[in-house]
Amino acid sequence: MPGDKSISHRALMFGAMALGETVVSGLLEGEDVLATGRAMTQLGAKIEKRGEHWHINGVGVGGFLEPDAPLDFGNAGTGVRLAMGLVGTYDFVSRYTGDASLCSRPMGRVLNPLKSIGVEVLEHNDGKLPIALRGPSMPVPITYHTPVASAQVKSCIMLAGLIIPGITTVIEDVFTRDHTEKMLTGFGANVQVKTAANGQRTIEVEGLPDLRGQEVQVPGDPSSAAFPMVAALIVPGSDVTIENVLMNPTRTGLLITLQEMGADIEVLNERVSGGEDIADIRVKYSDLKGVTVPAERAASMIDEYPVLAVAAAFAEGATHMPGIDELRVKESDRLSAVADGLKANGVECIEGEDFLTVEGGSGKVAGGGRVKTHLDHRIAMCFLVMGMASQKDVSIDDSNMIATSFPTFTPEMTRLGAEFGRPNN
Ligand code: S3P
């Protein structure tokens, strides 16, 4: 599996900020992560690939240089939202932009807490990119109770806290992916986490830490592993082992859900590497049954709903996915993109404001549709996976965005038996 996207972005950012050399192995060389690397270079870090490893020479906390051009994050929400925390609090002007998809996504969720730190929003387009920020000469630590279940928002505030004297606090009601907490601690920051009986987490970050370069091993991305996993479940006769997959409990919601649907999935060689749980996953073709996915599980599988919807289309009975309104503000409005793609391929579904219900075809999906991907890599990949088992081929309008997160998708899936071609019409 290619490296985990969330961890890869953070490895470059934290390496750029820490003093001395960070050496990263297994970095995802997708467009999103490479854009973050370019932005870190504009801020003064030195980044180069030697052999299999990426070497980053960081500037030290507080040491970023004023960028002389906008930081362009392409398609990457994680890149830009974390960078606005990392850099936006500096007492200079920083500008942020991205592609058409990223420029249509809401940034108010990070601008609001940054404003209470004293960051000035000099330019924005109705709360969206392009955005220009200027940090205050005296940033103040805040306590921010985040209204959205979002690791990007949490991480933005935590990173801002690194150059603020004192303790910056983020409170989250839902446990979202904790890579920032774990990795910052690994780089030498003082991060304290308390979890209340109701699951609410309070994260405290001490400002102005002495961060030092580290060795980072990036595990395989479970959000990418989701595609061969579901392909194996729906293509009769499959038996596929996916190696080196991140098993952090904040990322395993899809695996649990598929097992509840009756999927034959074995978790093998469980081990710990670089402070993260990893394992190999063996998946065999299975008769799936529809389930209701608990809404509380959404954060741990937020990027996997599109491909779950594909598995659900082949299951027996309905699969109900409540509490997924956050899908509307991803790289595309994924709730409606998935529903439209399913309908175009003969799958019945109901799209609610914050839920999706998919009527399974007990192993049979007509296919034959052309899917609009809306510059969204996961919409592209999930419907190509559907085409591996549908009665007629499935086509998509654009495959370019796949390179943002899974540049080896086509060769890897071809190795498993997929056939790709250009549609005739
Ligand atoms: C990510 C957090 C999630 C996820 C995204 C990666 C991260 O976004 O969808 O792909 O690395 O922090 P939200 O924080 O908006 O839920």
What this model shows, in words?
The chain is of the alpha+beta class and 425 residues long. The chain has 2 domains: 5-208, Enolpyruvate transferase domain (UDP-n-acetylglucosamine1-carboxyvinyl-transferase, Chain), CATH 3.65.10.10; 222-415, Enolpyruvate transferase domain (UDP-n-acetylglucosamine1-carboxyvinyl-transferase, Chain), CATH 3.65.10. It is 30% helix and 24% strand. It has 12 helices and 20 strands. The chain has helices at 5-17, 31-42, 77-88, 108-117, 151-161, 179-187, 222-234, 253-260, 305-314, 334-344, 377-387, 409-415; strands spanning 20-25, 46-50, 53-58, 71-72, 93-97, 120-125, 128-134, 143-145, 167-172, 191-195, 201-206, 215-217, 239-246, 264-273, 276-284, 318-321, 349-351, 356-359, 370-371, 395-396. A 4-stranded mixed sheet has the order 2-3-1-12. Strands 4-5-7-6 form a 4-stranded mixed sheet. It has a 4-stranded mixed sheet with strand order 8-9-11-10, covered by helices on one side. Helix 1 packs parallel to helix 6, helix 3 runs parallel beside helix 5 and helix 9 runs parallel beside helix 11 (377-387). It is globular. Bound molecules: shikimate-3-phosphate (S3P).
